[in-house]
Design a protein that fits this description.
The chain is α+β, with helices and mostly antiparallel strands. The chain has a single domain, classed as Cyclic phosphodiesterase (Cyclic Phosphodiesterase, Chain: A, Alpha-Beta Complex), CATH 3.90.1140.10. 23% of the residues lie in helices and 35% in strands. The protein has four helices and eight strands; from the N terminus they run βαβαββααββββ. The strands form two sheets. The chain has a four-stranded antiparallel sheet, with helices on one face. The chain has a four-stranded antiparallel sheet with strand order 5-4-3-6. A hairpin with a 3-residue loop joins strand 3 and strand 4. It is globular and about 45 Å long.
Amino acid sequence: MKYLAYFQPNKELSDLISRQNHLVLPGSGLHSTLCFFYMEPGHENKLVMDLSQINFNPFEFETLGFDDFDKDSLVLKLSRSDELLQLHSGIVSVVKNYADSEFDAIAKQYFGDNYNPHLTISKSSSQFDRTSKELIGRKNRIAKYTLAKKVDGNWKEMQDFYSSG
């Protein structure tokens, strides 16, 4: 089963993005991926317990610019604060104990030094206005992340994790 650890922008930034023309939101909604992986569902309870042991401080990010990602995703690139990178690293360290054998290949491509935080906002093929400066330079403070799993083609939230600060 596929799992996703992510955080979401605050209401102000979400509303600003939602008001843009030619927006095609991803199936998982507005989000920034901290880690995705495949795992046997029988490990869920232990994974949640271990993730809940990660202490993290609230962190801030700033939107930097538009970029294309993967097959057809338009993203807003985000700044890489130390707190965000520490949370990402902590989650990956826990997840690798439960994820299936594909995780090493996923981790090499997307995680660690290759982790490029971004906010997935639309499809690259949409007519979204990439020249708009309205979404650039926006700061956001994050104090929680969410673990979700894909069930019958839809993302189902499993657990929220809150900062210790």
